[in-house]
Amino acid sequence: MTPPPSAIPSDERACWATLMTSEHLLPGLVVFADSLLRTHASRYPLVVMTTSKLSHRALAVLAAIRNVVVRPVEPIYPQLAGTHLATPRFGEVWTKLRVWDLDEYDRVVLVDSDMLVTRNMDELMLDDTVFAPHGAPDKADQWIASSFACTCNPNRIKTYPDDWIPANCGYTPQSHPSALTSPLQPTASSPPTHRLINSGLVVLRPDSTTLRRMIERINTDPRVVAYRFPDQDFLADWFEDRVKILPWTYNALKKLKTVHPNIWRDQEVRNVHYILDKPWKLGRPGTPANPKDIDAEIHSWWWDAFDRLRQPARYNSKDGSFAISSDDWRECVESYVTLSLS
């Protein structure tokens, strides 16, 4: 059992948090949870915010993982639907903002579940310098910390903004090793794209009053209908000049490996983010299901982690860290993984 926040020392009242709205996301979630909580032994719980769209079987899978806390939440939808979404599924991501309601915690790191932790990241919970360029822990609730959105658009997705080109990307002018310790921070003269974040990982101080104000703006701000990436575009506007840019390593977008060799080093990655096509949907690289995978190497990292977790002694372990039944594993996890041609 995860101790309630009140039982955790005040300097450790922190958690990871993610949103789950559909059972088909479970392969990503269970691999992420295994890498975060067990392989790399985070001392902090993972709060999974769930909506009524999630099945009872999926909830049972979540409940079977030690240090996962299931938190039912109400979805957030703007009164006026977005008309320029980069992809229709982004209509669900507004609910990620419910993380600001987790104010029983002093600090939360919002994460996406299509990730793979490769090194322990608990320092994000303890270091106040992740907020604001010079620390400012007394004003931490007014800031967030996150990484740049990569605006290179290497897949040439037509629904992405026209100014999403390599020359405008916040990662383009950076280099190794300074990108690890002194990532570029936006200034008044920076291109507008340097103020965009990828909301796959956001460090924040939750506050339910802030959430109520956010929802009010979501329902009244005319810019909302034009957002391509709803939650992250909104956060960039809401926090404006109060975003501390984190090194790329905490939210290592899989495309950075090939698009930004100027900064990418395999050994420095802490957390891979499998944006765009999901490895469990594509199938194992090099198989008939996925013969020409341009991201084969980085997708293979996910498949290696899945293969380890796929062992019955791992997903239903004797120590109780994972207690997923064979039926639930087969019908709620593997059923959403492209295995037949692997």
From TrEMBL:
Pfam family, one: Glyco_transf_8
Domain of life, per lineage: Eukaryota
GO molecular function, one term: glycosyltransferase activity
Gene3D superfamilies documented for this protein: Spore Coat Polysaccharide Biosynthesis Protein SpsA, Chain A
InterPro entries noted in UniProt: Glyco_trans_8 (IPR002495), GNT1/Glycosyltrans_8 (IPR050587), Nucleotide-diphossugar_trans (IPR029044)
Protein name: Galactinol synthase
